[in-house]
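Q: Structure tokens for this one, please.
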Amino acid sequence: MDLLLIPGFWLDGDSWGEVTTRLRDAGRTVHPLTLPGLESVDADRSGITLRDHVDAVVAAVDAIGERVVLVGHSGGGSIAWAVADARPELVARVVFVDSGPLGDGGVINDELPVVDGEIPLPDWSVFEDEDLVDMTEELRDHFAAIAKPEPARVASDKQVLSDPRRYDVPVTVICCEFTANQLQQMIDGGAPWVAELAAVKERVLIDLPTGHWPQFTKPVELAEAIVGAL
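A: Here is the predicted structure, written as tokens:
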């Protein structure tokens, strides 16, 4: 079964790097995706919307024409969930990497600083300490070197979902900043931001302790966790 890897903000398909290599070595067919506007620093991203990113992944799913697994990191998880809503019959599982399903009407993050209609990778001070666990200076420099500005509307457009069959799609959450136990407690306690996840009929929570970018900080372990999720 094919895996589609959906990167989070500021990242392209190549950012999955060693994770892609490890998954292919494990015998998986992997498609690391580069979303519209993230092709290069100079790409025109002025009019790109959240729906454009969702539609690009839907097109990739349709091109394969068989059931696939979606792996979404960070904001890419929200995109993966919208694709599961659009094509529930073609999505066998969604694997969320330090992310989760964004419900109808939600936004990914409309608090990020917009500069000239796009969102450059912010200063590290914008992020929480939990985000930056294991992010060495070398890894931060690498991230900054490969980062592309994110289309502003991808961060601020409202999620649009309409098919309740999405709740039938099995979900795995790879928990990095929060432990699986902490996340389950939030679900049990009715925390609003996990309401969409709580509605999923089949979910598995697994731990991968690190910061927000395990594809950089723990790529081997992340690849193993993805394989385990399948």
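A few notes: The first helix runs from residue 17 to 25. The chain has a mean pLDDT of 97.
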